[in-house]
User: What shape does this take?
Amino acid sequence: MTQKIAIASDHGGYSLKKAIKEKFSSYDWVDLGTDSTESVDYPEFGYSVAEAIEKGKVEFGVIVCGTGIGISIAANRNPAVRAALCTDTTMARLTRQHNDANVLALGERIIGEEAAFDIVEVFLNTEFEGGRHARRVEKLSQ
Ligand code: RB5
Assistant: This one.
C-alpha cells in the first residue's frame, strides 16, 4: 500500500485508530485526529476525511467511532465518498470489489482489534472489479 490513507476517529474510536496505525506502521497514514480520548463530535472527523478524499489528498480513508455508524453517516454526506461500515472481511472484500468503497468505517465497541486489523488489510488490498459494478457505482454519483 503506497497511497496516502487518511485516518480519523472520535474519542470512541481513538484506541482502535492508534492500534491500526501501529499495526500498519509502513502505510502512509494522514492522521486527522482526534488525538486523545477526550470527548469530541464524530461528524467533524467524518467530514475531515471526506474533504481529504474530495480534494484528492488521499486515495482511501479509515474512520472509527464507537459503532462506526455516526462517523460513516457523516463521511457519506460528501458525494466524493463511498464509506462502508464493515464488521468482517467478507464485507471489506465485497465493498471494494463491488462498491469501490473508498472509506472504511469501523466500530471500536463492536469488533475486536484482531478482526479490525484483518478488515483493514483486506479493504486496503482488494481491487475494484469494475465491469457491471462500474455502472452501478456511477449511478451513486447522479
Ligand atoms: C460517542 O459516544 C458515540 O456516540 C460515537 O462514538 C459513535 O458510536 C456514534 O455513532
Summary: Residues 4-140 form a domain with the Ribose 5-phosphate Isomerase B; Chain: A, fold (CATH 3.40.1400.10). The two ends are 30 Å apart (CA to CA).
